[in-house]
Amino acid sequence: MVCTHEAVPQNGALLDLLSNPPARLKNEHRLLEGRFMEIFDIHHHLGSLNGGSLRDEAGWQDRDYENRVRIMDANGIATAAILAATGYIQAEGIKDTMRSNDSVATYRRRDPKRFPVACGIVEPLHGTRSLEELERMKHELQLDGVVWHSRFQGLAVDHPLMRPLLKKVEELGLVPLIHTNAESNLEAVWRLERLAREFPDLTFLALDALTTNTNSQLALDIAKRTTNILFDTAHIRGGGFIRQFVEQAGSHRLVFGSLFYSYPASYERCATLEEIKAAGLSEADLANVLSLNAKKLFKLE
């Protein structure tokens, strides 16, 4: 299931609270079991796959921010994680990667309440220079995690060059966000399972793992036999699979992610969110998926 312009019918008072609040700020939160819950989208890329998070035209971040917040408001999404996008030109190697991470950090600083999490990128093929960049991301830019999209970075998720990077990520307390899209063998979700077993104290976030029926079932099997991989909801197939995942692996393993790119905007109406809200989950499970798991992962509470 991807986000589209189509609206999905909703039922029940709980859905009315989420979708038809009286005002924007009330739209962002609701009281649930004695605490306020946000709808937190973990999968918002800055830029596009054609240029990454680097753009040359003046004022592009201002235009991006205005449109992104407009779409978030229209879908009742209070907060989002801003992630670096791959596909940027690297004519100057690590310097271009640094510029990309600077761009992500700058974007988050304009509205840290709306974008409390920002995640940069490093290239495994930059070798030890990427270890230095991880240090800079943590201590200078104050980023929260690292994104890998291996099919655009030229090697597999479990390539040997990933090991020293993940050791540094664990040392620094960053969160690894790794794309596991079924369209690429380089991003095969079983490769991430290997890393999860090698780094049992590191919690991974698998992005795009629920891309197809086959990949979704494999991801669910992996979720049942590992404890340190969370899965985002991008591409999820529908409410039936959402319920199956929660029943078999637990709601604490599923994180709302809509998969949003800026150029062009990926959607106006987020069908993934509509499917989650219509899946018939308990309020506690819904809270986990829509915000609490992400907040716990990034230590926001």
Please describe the structure with a list of short key phrases separated by commas or semicolons.
two-stranded antiparallel sheet, 11 helices, alpha/beta, 15% strand, eight-stranded parallel sheet, TIM Barrel, 301 residues
Task: Describe this entry's structure for a reader.
This protein is of the alpha/beta class. It has a single domain (36-297), classed as Metal-dependent hydrolases (TIM Barrel). The protein has helices at residues 13-19, 24-28, 60-74, 94-110, 128-139, 162-172, 189-198, 213-225, 239-249, 271-277, 283-297; strands at residues 29-32, 35-38, 40-46, 79-84, 117-121, 145-148, 175-179, 204-207, 229-232, 254-255. The strands form two sheets. The chain has an eight-stranded parallel beta sheet with strand order 3-4-5-6-7-8-9-10, sandwiched between helices. A two-stranded antiparallel sheet has the order 1-2. Helix 5 (128-139) packs parallel to helix 6 (162-172). The longest helix has 17 residues, at 94-110.
- CATH topology category name: TIM Barrel
What is the annotated CATH architecture? Alpha-Beta Barrel
Major sheet description: 8 strands, parallel
Structural class: alpha/beta
List the helices and strands and how they pair.
Layout: H1 13-19, H2 24-28, E1 29-32, E2 35-38, E3 40-46, H3 60-74, E4 79-84, H4 94-110, E5 117-121, H5 128-139, E6 145-148, H6 162-172, E7 175-179, H7 189-198, E8 204-207, H8 213-225, E9 229-232, H9 239-249, E10 254-255, H10 271-277, H11 283-297
Parallel strand pairs: 3-4, 4-5, 5-6, 6-7, 7-8, 8-9, 9-10
Antiparallel strand pairs: 1-2
